[in-house]
Amino acid sequence: MNNYRTIYEAVGEYDGIGRIVGLFYPKVQRHPLLGPLFPEDIIPVMEKQQLFLTQFFGGPTLYSDAYGHPMMRARHLPFPITPERAEAWLSCMREALAETGMPEELQEIVIERLSGPAHHFVNTTNERET
C-alpha cells in the first residue's frame, strides 16, 4: 500500500470501490451457488455494497450514515451461507480485483481483509439448513 493510509485510498477511493463492485456483481449473478441468493435487480445491492466497502476499507462512514450500524452477520442470517458459498464469493472478488489491474500485493491485502468476514457469515453447512 506504500504511501496510502487506508485500503480505501489505495484502491482509488469511492470511484475505485465502485469499479470493483461493478466488476464483482455480474460474476456473483452468474455463479451457480451465489446467483440464486441475490435479487434480479442487483443495483440496490451494488449501491449498498459500495457504501459498505467504502467504510469497511477506511473511507467515510457512508453505510452507517445511511443505514445505521452494518451488523453484517445479522443481515446475512436469512440466507444459507455455506463454506462453499463463502469461498465462491471470495473467488468472484479475486476475479474482479484482477480485472481492475491493481497491483497483486494490493489484491491480496483486499482479499485478506474480506476473508474473515466472508467466513464469519457462514451459518450452515447444508444449503437446506438455516
Automatic annotation (TrEMBL):
UniProt KW keywords: Heme, Iron, Metal-binding, Transport
Protein name, UniProt field: Hemoglobin
Family: Belongs to the truncated hemoglobin family. Group II subfamily.
Binding site for heme: 119
Gene3D superfamilies: Globins
Recorded GO MF terms: heme binding; metal ion binding; oxygen binding; oxygen carrier activity
Family annotation (InterPro entries): GlbO/GLB3-like (IPR044203), Globin-like_sf (IPR009050), Globin/Proto (IPR012292), Hemoglobin_trunc (IPR001486)
